[in-house]
Known about the structure:
Largest sheet: 4 strands, mixed
Shape: elongated
Mean pLDDT: 83
Strand order of the largest sheet: 9-12-11-10
Radius of gyration: 30 Å
Amino acid sequence: MADYDFSTLPLAPAMQRSWAALFAARCAPGGGWNSLSASRSTWKELRAFARFLAAQDQPPTDVDELTVAVWNAWRISRPRSASGRSQIFMIAGFLRPDSRLPQPVREAMAKRVPRVEKAETAFTPDELRQLRLAAQRMFRSACLRIRENTELLHRWLAGAVEPGTRQWLIGEALDCLARTGDVPQYVGSDGRRRGVVSRYVFALGGENAAATWERLFLNRMEAVALAVLLVTDHGLNATTVSELPVPRATPDSGEGAFPVYRIELEKRRRGADRHFETRNITDFGADSPGRLITQALEATAYARALVAEHAPGLDRLLLWRTNRPCQGKRDDELRVGVIGVGLHHTAPYVWGQQVGLAGSPMRRLRKTVNVPHRREPGQNTQDTHDSVYVLSEPQAQQAAADVIADGITDALDHARRTLRARLSDAAQPGDLETVTAACTDYHHSPFTGSGSGCRASFLLCTACPNARVTPIHHPRLAHLHQGIEGLRTVLDPAVWSADWGNAHARLDDLQNRLGPHVWREALSRVTAADREAIEQLLNGHYDL
Length: 544
């Protein structure tokens, strides 16, 4: 839960109200934001954009007064980094739903923002082995510790420990620890805990974490070690691991059979989109993929029991115990009493430094697993896998020239699916009208030989830099977009994608640039002549 006061922004009241309305729409169900962190990050960038606008000689008083000059100045002012690129996209995406946003500004927002290449490379095979070994040592040590104390607790509960002995006192302390999250404590009149009850201190061997609550719970670094192993074994995103629900054994994993765990994966994507995936992983022995899941369930059993008691609706695997329930906690991080939920925001960096790295290993680990080893997307599209992970990776460049070639082909395909026709308010003298646009240079087509006259399909006008799209073309193009969409229902998907996919994608791009208001208006202005022309085009009756 968070409050955002737009009256505190250095903007004119009309702009404050407009931004507040856009913000509220995004926060509403189906608006595109599904987490508190999404609204917080946008609020942060909006404050920066508001300060920028306030510093202008003539600050715009509402959305309809934004100009191309102001937008370009904002874009140039952003750092040439991944964060700067993200800021540009975030503000553009926030303002686009407002129908009053001027068309020239929409076109300026649609211009390509070059991707900033990161110097992030995959770990070498030796580095990966060392990292995995470090994580295994830490997590397995924790598993053995929790298993040993669990066995003692079970013997104590069964009455198999002699009363009055040191082992009996430890068993009693473990029983309290399993039920409450802490060993028996003195409690002051103010309700605050004052320390471990003295008769247990000697039996436990002290009052520190290792002597008390670590007997049944993972600590923060051990939770990171478990996350590292999940990433290296399964190529998952760090956020996905942090939010991973508890894996359940499938019903056919009967008594004595190998347990088959069903893992439900969810990865957030830009906007409201999310990637959902289910994997079945079997524990059939010490080196099997499912053995880590079995160990993780064992190591987090007591933490999950406490969470189930105090927060029944919370379903998470990655749980750990903390000494300080509120200290160092961000607003978007969950705690259930003394139990931390998911990865703490600083923990991977601290763990990485402990094993000799400069920071968190998570992103590099995922890249290492998915590129040199699995060589397939992990919760990404193939385009994202190729462009973001593969093409920039030296190991992939050296070992997989064919993959790089495929990535280049995908980049060319993306260019074919992007609108290249110029958007204009009106046609110019000398323009020639085609079925879908105005042609500014019929004799020098990029699709046919120079000087011979263009013989390309009218569907390619939207892919031609010589074409000009004006408001008189909007209705016909909007109707063409609907017509191509309608062909999906009658054509094989592969045929539709090959014959109509690129044209449809370019019209999608045009629709985004024009905005929903202009697009709806264009559809309302479709004439009988437009319908006849598009029908002829879709049926292939135009002579080219």
